[in-house]
Amino acid sequence: MIEAQALRKAYGDFEAVKGIDVSVERGEAFGFLGPNGAGKSSTMRMVAAVSPLTGGSLRILGLDPESDGPAIRARIGVCPQEDSLDGDLTVRDNLVVYARYFGIGRRDAARKADELLEFVKLTEKAHGMVEDLSGGMKRRLTIARSLVNEPELLLLDEPTTGLDPQARHVVWDQLHRLKQTGVTIVLTTHYMDEAEQLCDRLVVMDGGLIAAEGSPLSLIARYSTREVVELRMGVGENEAAAERVEDLAERVEVLPDRVLLYVADGEKVVEEAMARGLEPRSTLVRRSSLEDVFLRLTGRSLDA
């Protein structure tokens, strides 16, 4: 569905994407994980055939975005990072009018709009105005709009940014359902839990480069331990605490607000740390996550 080799994107002297290789198979959910400024959105704009590449090669659905842009855009759906809904139209008319841009007849556009409103659970809001929708509802409507042309490939740029946890889970459920219908999904996110929930495979991006690639579980297994102990000490006490327990862990990371110990058995390490007289304000034992992978690869947390 997507094949990129040595893909580059520059804006003047600034190189946002510095030569990446990406391959996405039909039917999978593929993710670009990384902080703001990593090059994720620039990559997505090239894949959406709306931003010319600076270097390398790119094929979307077997087509060249340089010469086949209109043909590609007719077969993909795009859910941008910022909602661009028409506030002067009703919820339903946002879908009907957008469908007409693809040459879909009026009757078929109306039928498709009703189907999509049912899919994203907005049927009861069909005749209301967009401005009356909550943030989560607007996001669901934007996703519905990206599906009016029955795309083979759906691109989602930060699909749940700004949503509360409940709204995020509703969107995740709809994307899971969509994937089951055979749509290939490519998304960018800086949420580790979102990437773990939605992606069959992903790349970790930082500074315009790919730092690692694989399934969420394989990346965690490759770059982290089974469990992580978080020790929250007093102000200015983290460095000293880390030195006292560094021999208990495979790896130790000192963050401004906590010490992370990468271990196989978290509860055992907590007991040993306490036996050494450590008195953290709080302790937490959790499983490793993609944020731990990012910290290992780049030396900083994902939200830094």
Notes on the structure:
This protein has 304 residues and is α/β, with parallel strands linked by helices. It folds into 2 domains: 214 residues, 3-Layer(aba) Sandwich (Rossmann fold), CATH 3.40.50; 63 residues, Alpha-Beta Plaits (2-Layer Sandwich), CATH 3.30.70.980. The strands form 3 sheets. The chain has a 6-stranded mixed beta sheet, with helices on both faces. A hairpin with a 2-residue loop joins strand 8 and strand 9. Helix 5 runs parallel beside helix 6 and helix 8 packs across helix 11. The chain is globular. The chain starts with a strand and ends in a 6-residue tail after the last helix. The model has no long low-confidence stretch (mean pLDDT 94).
Q: What name does CATH use for the topology of the largest domain?
A: Rossmann fold
> What gap, in angstroms, lies between the N and C termini?
33 Å
Low-confidence parts, pLDDT < 50 over ≥5 residues? none
How many domain modules?
2
Q: Rough shape? A: globular
Q: How many DSSP helices?
A: 11
Q: Which architecture of the largest domain per CATH?
A: 3-Layer(aba) Sandwich
**How big is the Rg?**
22 Å
Largest sheet: 6 strands, mixed
CATH class identity of the largest domain: Alpha Beta
Helix share, percent: 25-40%
Lateral arrangement of strands in the main beta sheet: 5-6-7-3-8-9
Strand fraction equals 25-35%
